[in-house]
């Protein structure tokens, strides 16, 4: 059943591409739900099982806990006035797609069979890039076989080395790879490389559960280990370590009690934030002293809205959060907001300059998605099929990338699978292009805030 669920998800994404369904609000919310569900699924005790079985169970578990995952999407609403909250207004402009200039891509020499998608990518430098690829063979049947690949370039994409890796991948935004310097890279499920992505191994974690969330920032690694075991109950541990090492140890003070799986975010070695699912709704905590002490954040979203995605640290104390309008529903655990579905939901941008203790929000003209904020007034939002950007603190937004932006070397149906924001003006995206001959990958790269994009092709093994 797990394999059938994963194959269905892959086929649905291909079908949506063929039908050109750019209903951005709906797609982005579903992507966030899959991301949260997948991260919770990765916490399951699967260490004693064969790797291929673990991949299948991970996806199946993610589908099974989608109801529980909605806890993070439907945020408990605090009583009116329970948190400091200043409503501001801003002028908005109608976003228009950018006219991108693309460079001619190299020819594709081999195509990969099966259903293929990019899981994550990162470019530590102009010449060095790493892309993770998931392949599902025989996914049209009820039982598919999943294979993980990593593609590495050291010459800006002119040539790639593609290898099989024994790392479970999650598609649809639920997997991330981040480098600190040229050699030290980490995946958000606890695998590490110290040779630029050629070889990978599991980090040494001083906890009984696997890593379910991890972030690298300014040479430091923050992680969450959470799960349940048949002999030790359930729990959550916050860990940290050096990006140049391979060991993660518990921080001095643990902010979460019991099983509260979530996502950890960071803006530096001393600053981290956790967005977790507690028994009564979303738990938001932060530290400014490397985990020695923690404090509760105020809820960022105004009344009648909820967070469809994660908080985005722009600096040690600067935070951004997108909030989507919905309707309040009373449940046994409190009042929650169910997000409004549709192509054009009402979105607010909440920002904090004091580490989340106070927030100010304003209505913005951008689709729902995951925001990545920068230390200046710029930020990016990945909605699923598109990438948007602001350079004025969210007052106005412009779509800078969508399916069809890149010039493809051969015909096929392109799907935007992964996005990595490198800086205020630089970003890389990964698309997979399917055709009768098979699937290949393309990387789009911009260094001028999306005004132009370079197209880089990746020929994938034909087996």
Question: Could you please describe the fold and organization of this structure?
Answer:
- By secondary structure, the chain is mainly β.
- It has a single domain (2-458), classed as 7 Propeller (Methylamine Dehydrogenase, Chain H).
- Helix content is 12%, strand content 41%.
- It is built from four helices and 33 strands.
- It has helices at residues 2-18, 24-41, 51-64, 66-73, and strands at residues 85-87, 101-102, 115-122, 129-137, 145-153, 161-164, 177-180, 184-187, 191-193, 201-202, 204-205, 211-217, 220-229, 233-242, 247-250, 262-266, 272-278, 281-287, 295-296, 305-306, 312-313, 319-331, 334-339, 347-352, 359-364, 370-373, 379-382, 386-390, 398-402, 413-421, 427-435, 438-446, 452-458.
- The strands form seven sheets. Strands 1, 20, 21, 22, 23, 24 and 25 form a seven-stranded mixed beta sheet that branches. It has a five-stranded mixed beta sheet with strand order 2-33-32-31-30.
- Strand 28 and strand 29 form a beta hairpin.
- Helix 2 (24-41) packs across helix 3.
- The longest helix has 18 residues, at 24-41.
- It is globular and about 55 Å long.
- The two termini are 25 Å apart.
């Amino acid at each position: 059943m797990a394999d059938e669920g994963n194959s269905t998800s892959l086929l649905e994404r291909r079908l949506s591409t063929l039908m050109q369904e750019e209903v951005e609000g709906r797609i982005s919310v579903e992507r966030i739900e899959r991301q949260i569900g997948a991260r919770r699924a990765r916490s399951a005790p699967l260490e004693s099982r064969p790797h291929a079985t673990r991949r299948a169970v991970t996806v199946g578990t993610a589908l099974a806990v989608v109801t529980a995952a909605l806890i993070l999407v439907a945020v408990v609403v605090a009583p009116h006035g329970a948190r400091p909250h200043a409503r501001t207004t801003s002028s908005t402009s109608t976003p228009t797609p950018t006219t991108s200039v693309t460079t001619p891509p190299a020819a594709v020499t081999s195509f990969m069979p099966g259903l293929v998608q990019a899981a994550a990518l990162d470019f530590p430098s102009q010449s060095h890039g790493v892309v993770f690829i998931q392949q599902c063979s025989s996914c049209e049947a009820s039982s598919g076989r999943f294979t993980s690949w990593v593609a590495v370039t050291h010459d800006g994409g002119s040539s790639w080395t593609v290898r099989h890796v024994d790392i479970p991948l999650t598609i649809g935004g639920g997997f991330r790879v981040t480098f600190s310097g040229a050699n030290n890279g980490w995946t958000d499920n606890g695998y590490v490389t110290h040779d630029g992505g050629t070889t990978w191994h599991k980090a040494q974690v001083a906890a009984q559960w696997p890593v379910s969330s991890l972030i690298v920032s300014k040479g430091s690694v923050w992680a969450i280990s959470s799960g349940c075991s048949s002999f030790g109950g359930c729990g959550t541990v916050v860990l940290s370590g050096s990006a140049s090492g391979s060991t993660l140890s518990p921080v001095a003070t643990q902010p979460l009690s019991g099983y509260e799986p979530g996502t950890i975010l960071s803006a530096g070695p001393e600053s981290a934030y956790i967005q977790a699912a507690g028994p009564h709704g979303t738990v938001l905590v932060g530290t400014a002293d490397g985990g020695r002490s923690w404090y509760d954040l105020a809820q960022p979203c105004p009344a009648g809205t909820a967070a469809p995605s994660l908080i985005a640290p722009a600096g040690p104390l600067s935070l951004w959060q997108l909030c989507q309008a919905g309707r309040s529903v009373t449940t046994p655990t409190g009042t929650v907001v169910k997000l409004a579905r549709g192509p054009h939901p009402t979105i607010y941008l909440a920002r904090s300059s004091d580490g989340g203790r106070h927030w100010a929000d304003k209505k913005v003209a951008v689709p729902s998605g995951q925001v990545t904020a920068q230390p200046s007034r710029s930020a990016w939002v990945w909605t699923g099929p598109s990438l948007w950007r602001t350079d004025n603190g969210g007052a106005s937004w412009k779509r800078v990338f969508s399916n069809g932006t890149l010039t493809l070397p051969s015909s096929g149906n392109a799907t935007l699978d992964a996005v990595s924001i490198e800086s205020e003006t630089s970003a890389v995206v990964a698309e997979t292009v399917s055709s009768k001959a098979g699937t290949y990958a393309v990387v789009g790269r911009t260094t001028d805030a999306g005004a132009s994009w370079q197209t880089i092709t990746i020929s994938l093994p034909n087996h």
